[in-house]
Structure to design on (160 residues):
């Protein structure tokens, strides 16, 4: 009787884990995949965020926005008009005319056209003017275990 309960409990845990993984994978469609906070040289117009469609359907980013934090906090529209990302496709958004705060940790948010927060990542900090970017590892990430590492940038290409 005791071993039957263990099998049942184990089966429940496996089913729950598979169910949660399936749910998380289905709800994740577009993710922030890489962030350049502090490039070589002057930061204005050189900081960027890579966005990746990890879902199974195309997504239109029209009206979606990303937050920024310097000189004040706000959000800027990624695509005022239609910008469709096919499954597996990525796009790079450059913060034109803005800078991100490098020396203080901050959270970055991806918002849909209605202003709902779809994802919040970080906190990020980068004190060095170099080619290092914050990257989701593995590329696209694991929905249940998000890992971010500071590595040599892979702008508009898979993270390594």
């Amino acid at each position: 009787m005791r071993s039957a309960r263990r099998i049942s409990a184990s089966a429940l845990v496996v089913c729950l884990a598979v169910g949660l993984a399936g749910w998380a994978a289905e709800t994740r469609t577009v993710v922030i995949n890489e962030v350049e906070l502090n490039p070589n040289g002057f930061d204005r117009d050189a900081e960027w965020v890579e966005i990746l469609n990890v879902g199974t359907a195309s997504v239109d980013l029209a009206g979606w926005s990303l937050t920024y934090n310097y000189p004040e906090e706000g959000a800027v529209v990624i695509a005022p008009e239609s910008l469709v990302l096919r499954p597996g496709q990525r796009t790079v958004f450059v913060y034109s005319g803005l800078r991100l705060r490098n020396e203080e940790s901050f959270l970055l948010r991806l918002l849909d056209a209605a202003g709902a927060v779809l994802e919040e990542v970080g906190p990020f900090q980068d004190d060095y003017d170099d080619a290092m970017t914050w990257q989701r590892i593995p590329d696209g990430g694991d929905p249940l275990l998000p890992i971010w590492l500071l590595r040599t940038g892979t702008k508009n290409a898979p993270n390594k």
User: Anything to note?
Assistant: Helices lie at 2-27. The chain has one domain: 29-152.
